[in-house]
TrEMBL record:
<feature type="active site" description="Proton donor">
    <location>
        <position position="37"/>
    </location>
</feature>
<feature type="binding site">
    <location>
        <position position="177"/>
    </location>
    <ligand>
        <name>ATP</name>
    </ligand>
</feature>
<dbReference type="GO" id="GO:0005829">
    <property type="term" value="C:cytosol"/>
</dbReference>
<dbReference type="GO" id="GO:0015940">
    <property type="term" value="P:pantothenate biosynthetic process"/>
</dbReference>
<dbReference type="GO" id="GO:0005524">
    <property type="term" value="F:ATP binding"/>
</dbReference>
<comment type="subunit">
    <text>Homodimer.</text>
</comment>
<dbReference type="InterPro" id="IPR042176">
    <property type="entry name" value="Pantoate_ligase_C"/>
</dbReference>
<feature type="binding site">
    <location>
        <begin position="148"/>
        <end position="151"/>
    </location>
    <ligand>
        <name>ATP</name>
    </ligand>
</feature>
<feature type="binding site">
    <location>
        <begin position="30"/>
        <end position="37"/>
    </location>
    <ligand>
        <name>ATP</name>
    </ligand>
</feature>
<feature type="binding site">
    <location>
        <position position="61"/>
    </location>
    <ligand>
        <name>beta-alanine</name>
    </ligand>
</feature>
<keyword id="KW-0067">ATP-binding</keyword>
<keyword id="KW-0566">Pantothenate biosynthesis</keyword>
<keyword id="KW-0436">Ligase</keyword>
<feature type="binding site">
    <location>
        <position position="61"/>
    </location>
    <ligand>
        <name>(R)-pantoate</name>
    </ligand>
</feature>
<comment type="pathway">
    <text>Cofactor biosynthesis; (R)-pantothenate biosynthesis; (R)-pantothenate from (R)-pantoate and beta-alanine: step 1/1.</text>
</comment>
<dbReference type="InterPro" id="IPR003721">
    <property type="entry name" value="Pantoate_ligase"/>
</dbReference>
<comment type="similarity">
    <text>Belongs to the pantothenate synthetase family.</text>
</comment>
């Protein structure tokens, strides 16, 4: 497995692979990797000749400087996981390599997908995501890029961003990986105490309850939202950031539940902000 920090060396290796006819998969991450990331890498390794992973805590996508400073880092363990699941190259750039001259002031928006959810409660977040991805996409020139559906809004936005700008790659969404009790795997989970992890399970339990209600025939989004809210409000240490019932393709609000529905929640458990979601198809 190759480990590189220099963008020019990255491009040289990638161009050599492409010259030999290799198909390349890419998974951008911020490190502190877990089995959810491993699922992305394994999927890429199974569908491509070469897999590239980037590890970079992107300052441009944090609207809270304290959150950025507390983001966990475990580079040595990250490299071990990458090697174990068949990653061919890990790109470990520093801030100056990604943003020479500083982070530019630039407006990158996809209005129809950036009206609610994290785009509303974390202003500037997705603009920062798209900024760093545009630079990585140009450098890696992958055939396919892999994103976890736990960040469902991000997955939709990146897919549309790639389509709009004509990047010649396919965006692949990979299902959320959960622990045995149902908690969605996240690098932020490491900051939870044992008691907070128990409280965090309310997110997935609420979503599963909503799924069962819809499957039993409930078509009123407000009724579903109210019941999910009751579950989340049962914890005094959990503070809901948002709770939405939306069309899973457009992220638009629904008057009547139909088609594929997204149930999405973000909440603070103590000082840690977690997100989770599920999609439910109504036949």
């Amino acid at each position: 497995m190759i480990v590189l920090k220099n963008p020019n060396e990255l491009r040289e290796v990638v161009q050599g692979w492409k010259h030999d006819g290799a198909e390349i998969g890419f998974a951008p991450t911020m490190g502190f990797l877990h089995k959810g990331h491993g699922a992305l890498f394994s999927r890429s390794a199974s569908e491509n000749d070469r897999t590239v992973v980037s590890i970079f805590v992107n300052p441009a996508q944090f609207n809270d400087p304290e959150d950025y400073s507390k983001y966990p880092i475990s580079t040595e363990k990250d490299l071990e996981l990458c090697k174990a699941v068949g990653v061919d190259l890990v790109y470990l750039p520093d801030r100056d390599s990604v943003y020479p001259g500083g982070i530019p002031s630039i407006e990158l928006r996809i209005p129809r997908l950036m009206r609610n959810l994290d785009a509303k409660t974390r202003p500037g977040h997705f603009e920062g995501v798209l900024l760093v991805l545009s630079r990585f996409f140009h450098a890696v020139e992958a055939d396919r890029a892999y994103f976890g559906k736990k960040d469902y809004q991000q997955y939709l936005i990146v897919k549309e961003f790639v389509r709009m700008l004509g990047f010649p790659m396919e965006i692949i969404g990979v299902e959320t990986v959960r622990d045995p009790e149902g908690l969605a795997l996240s690098s932020r989970n490491a900051r939870l105490s044992n008691s907070e992890k128990e409280e965090a399970l309310l997110l997935s339990r609420a979503l599963r309850l909503g799924e069962r209600l819809i499957q039993k025939g409930e078509t009123d989004p407000e009724a579903v939202r109210a019941i999910l809210s009751d579950v989340l409000d049962s914890s005094t240490s959990l503070k809901t950031d948002y709770l939405e019932v939306l069309n899973a393709d457009s992220l638009e609000e629904l008057q009547v539940l139909k088609g594929e529905v997204l149930l999405a929640v973000a909440a603070f458990v103590g000082q840690v902000r977690l997100i989770d979601n599920i999609t439910v198809r109504i036949s």
